[in-house]
Amino acid sequence: MTTASVALPEKVTRAPLGRLLRAELRWVLRRPRTLVGFGLLALVPVGLGLMMSLADFGGGPIGGPPVLASLLGNGMVLPLAAMTMAMPLLMPMLVSMAAADAIAGESAHGTLRGLLIAPVGRTRLVMVKAVGVATVTAVAVLVLAVLGITSGLVFTGTTEFTSLSGTTLSFADGIGRVGVAALWVWLQMAAVAAVALALSSFTDHPLVVLAATMGSLIVFTLLGTLPDLSWLQPALITTGWTSAIDVVRDPMVTATLTESGVRALCYIAIGLSITVARMATKDT
User: Fold this and answer.
1) Is 197 contained in some domain?
2) Domain range holding 148?
């Protein structure tokens, strides 16, 4: 009498999370369009430093928002001004492109299907993609902050931080203010990236994601200027984007910064939830 052998199914081994993250970060940070975006962002603080230097040499004032008007002879404000100028257009465009390429771009090139059938897990895949986009966002903010501080020191030669209230803060306090602003800007752009990532999971065309995200930001900005829609403004992602100026005040006003930060966290949670739900049923 022979005993029939029963073949047991092989255990599926999941790919290590660390290896997935390293591969994703290498891919997103070496992408040519990402590097071009970093280069364009680097021009913002350098250009502001040159403008500040020329205005100081010519003795003329710097027009525009208060954060720009306070640049003259106040180099530590330069990174804050650079982040303020890049928030409406350059940074949302960069993070939207990264989010569009993360899912819609891979789907368009046919590589997403291989990831979906691989032993990765749909939720883990979304988290890996989200970390990649968040890293691009963090590097973009660091480019503005670090080059802003460097340009401010080079073009003014001073390490003092003069607030809008007229008080002079130390270099350490100025670095702390820049760090708070950088964290706040990263949070706002991460919210934009989460929305773009959700849109990216519904299409195979990255340009559609970019156009929809940027178009939505423009519409939200316009809606935020209408007094009759004041009841809607607390729900708009762009509400409070001008509150970075509060970092330059002494004492620093944190109410609007906190409110917009909580709003950004809500958008991140909603965007990632939609992405996970969509990826759970996505085949290609």
Assistant:
1) yes
2) 19-279
